[in-house]
Amino acid sequence: MSGARHITHNRQRHHTRGTHTATTPLPLHHCSPSLSALLLLCSAAMGMGAFSLPPPPPWRRHLLCSALLFLLLWRTSEGNEELAALPPRGWNSYDSFSWIVDENAYLQNAQIMAEKLLPYGYQYAVIDFLWYRKYVDGAYTDSYGFDNIDEWGRPFPDLQRFPSSKADRGFSQIASKVHQMGLKFGIHLMKGISKQAVDANTPILDIKTGKPYIEDGRQWTARDIGLTHRTCAWMQKGFMSVNTDIGAGRAFLRSLYRQYADWGVDFVKVDCIFGTDYSPKEIITISELLQELDRPIILSLSPGTEVTPALAENISEHVNMYRVTGDDWDSWKDVSSHFDVSSSFATAKKIGATGLRGRSWPDLDMLPFGWLTDPSVNQGPHRKCNLTDDEQKTQMALWSMAKSPLMYGGDLRNLDKSTLSIITNPTLMKINHYSQNNMEFRYIYGERTSSEEHPSQFSSPCPVHLTKNNIMVFGLTACSDEKANGWYMFSQDGNPDHVCRNYEIQNDKNISFCLGKTKPLAWDAIIMDKEYEAKFHLAVKEIDDTCLDASASQRRTASDARFPMFSRCRWHAKQMWELNEKGNLVSTYSRLCATVESRQQEVGTAGARSWVATGSKGEIYLAFFNLDSKSRKISAKISDLGKVLGRKFVRKNLCSCTEVWSGKDFGLVKEEISGVVNPHGSMVFEIKC
């Protein structure tokens, strides 16, 4: 893994969580021209420069130098600011415009965001994917030949949708307007290099010379760096990984991110690079290249299908936010799927961990409220959010308690008062940014309040399931995860032609999941080296030409079931596997390892969940979530809060309590806090003991 590589920078930054260590002052010639000029002027003012000027009076020299040094320190601190010290907030165009947003619609949304959301910390205005694709007949999310690329193979904006880009084939003018609004400018990127650039074999820019990149006596091009067997699984006609082990691959990425910094970009969301599309070398390379820049840029990863804390362990320190689920859309199934994953990242203490030039945050994805479009369509906002008010409040409460980044997705030109009040609730804003000790709270009790023949009661964290069916779930995780062990070769008729794993025991017998091991297509048509000697396809013997995929051919939502994925067999890294000596089935595409387990399929899930956090002034935040389709009374004992949080926060079993959504003051409560929670609803309490 390329994490062992280091780049020497002019500015070395050393971060611990929430602190900075001093660095050696830079020599004058290492400063930017403006900073060098300030130092020279200050030296002249103190009588130390080479200027042939009469020295001013001492008091004036002191005043002038103090002012100049203030500007110097301000500029330096701006470059050294802790990135993502708090979970980022903003607006992203994807949920309302898919890929067809234009300059006018974007700037209108940005202006409303500046007026209505910036006071609540929403500051990043992000243009989502395919801003470089021409919006013409035949163009869609995985079409080919419609992207604008420059002579160096780099994308530039669609000039019809973004007319101000005609001036520089970039976003400089839009970024300037956004900055004048007091906002920060962000864009979506795909990993690596476009297939168009590779097919055109464009030269690679060396930003140090402004000429084509030359190494080992020859000029390098896009075909030298594009990994054609590692195209994005769900956009195979669009982009592929680049070889970051060679100088030319790094030079291409360096030219990309230098250009984005020159445009005034403050935030990049890099897609098809994490989760089942895991590309750790490229993630770390991008992180290193961003550290070379004087401009601080937030690094966000997307999507997060199959992400586990074990997978994030090697990546979180290199980024500022990273998705931990598939795409979240406006369905209750998607919302409710986030409870388990958010709890696991809190338990792993990944919330606010060390990140790129600052901190990193597990990202539960956008808030799909208000006026929306549909996934991957050529259509702008045309429908209302399908979530009820209670479901939207539940999502907002969970995202806030888990300290997820908050990226609103609806068209702000149709922002109604109810939605605005949900996404700007002052207490939730405070919880999302400033709370601590955020975790799932597992000591809640309750029962349904509606009349039933057999009223159900529960004790968290074991929700009640109305029906249960066992299903086999296939997944991917970091190879260090114990769940990835246990694969073995099974011989039949003397041939080791099956790869199997036991995943369940029934009647004292192991139940196994097995697939046929076959030679990859085109094996004899390419020059093989040691990298491919141990690779194979895994096929379903009864189905011709069908092989196991390590990543889906279409983007998956947060709630999509994790069944094994199969598609037509072909030469692609997502269908290549190897079995190592540790009993891991390793994907060539992502270097993640396969898991298989028996899981209960939940139909009509009922029950409840709860989260707890603490505030800076000793207050406690307690959230109840009702996952059931009927109302439930949910209760928690104050003594249990004390067990979890300690006597620092709970000194006695008598507390004052206010519910956040309703504003109801419960006054002094003794022994227990309880409330009737609506179906799919939430209650959030601010408690002072």
Description of the structure:
Helices cover 23% and strands 28% of the residues. It folds into three domains: 91-434, TIM Barrel (Alpha-Beta Barrel), CATH 3.20.20; 470-521 and 532-600, Trefoil (Acidic Fibroblast Growth Factor, subunit A) (Trefoil); 607-688, Immunoglobulin-like (Sandwich). It has 16 helices and 40 strands. Residues 1-53, 65-77, 451-469, 523-529 and 601-605 have low confidence and may be disordered. It has 689 residues and is an alpha+beta fold. A hairpin with a 2-residue loop joins β1 and β2. The strands form twelve sheets. Strands 16-17-15-14-13-5-4-3-20 form a nine-stranded mixed β-sheet. It has a six-stranded antiparallel β-sheet with strand order 21-34-35-40-37-38, with helices on both faces. Strands 23-22-36-39 form a four-stranded antiparallel β-sheet. It is globular and about 80 Å long.
SSE blueprint:
Blueprint: E1 15-16, E2 19-20, H1 33-45, H2 58-79, E3 89-92, H3 94-97, H4 103-117, E4 124-127, H5 172-180, E5 184-190, E6 193-194, H6 195-200, E7 205-206, E8 211-212, E9 214-215, E10 218-219, H7 222-225, E11 226-231, E12 239-242, H8 247-263, E13 267-271, H9 280-292, E14 298-302, H10 309-312, E15 321-323, H11 332-336, H12 338-347, E16 353-355, E17 358-363, E18 371-372, E19 383-384, H13 389-401, E20 406-408, H14 417-423, H15 426-434, E21 436-440, E22 445-448, E23 457-459, E24 465-477, E25 487-492, E26 495-506, E27 509-518, E28 537-539, E29 546-549, E30 565-568, E31 577-579, E32 585-587, E33 593-605, E34 608-614, E35 620-626, E36 632-637, H16 638-645, E37 654-659, E38 665-670, E39 672-677, E40 682-688
Parallel strand pairs: 3-4, 3-20, 4-5, 5-13, 13-14, 14-15, 15-17
Antiparallel strand pairs: 1-2, 6-12, 7-8, 9-10, 11-12, 16-17, 18-19, 21-34, 22-23, 22-36, 24-33, 25-26, 26-27, 27-28, 29-30, 31-32, 34-35, 35-40, 36-39, 37-38, 37-40
Helix pairs in contact: 1-2, 8-9, 13-14, 13-15
GO molecular function, one term: alpha-galactosidase activity
Catalytic activity: Hydrolysis of terminal, non-reducing alpha-D-galactose residues in alpha-D-galactosides, including galactose oligosaccharides, galactomannans and galactolipids
Pfam families: Melibiase_2 (PF16499), Melibiase_C (PF17801)
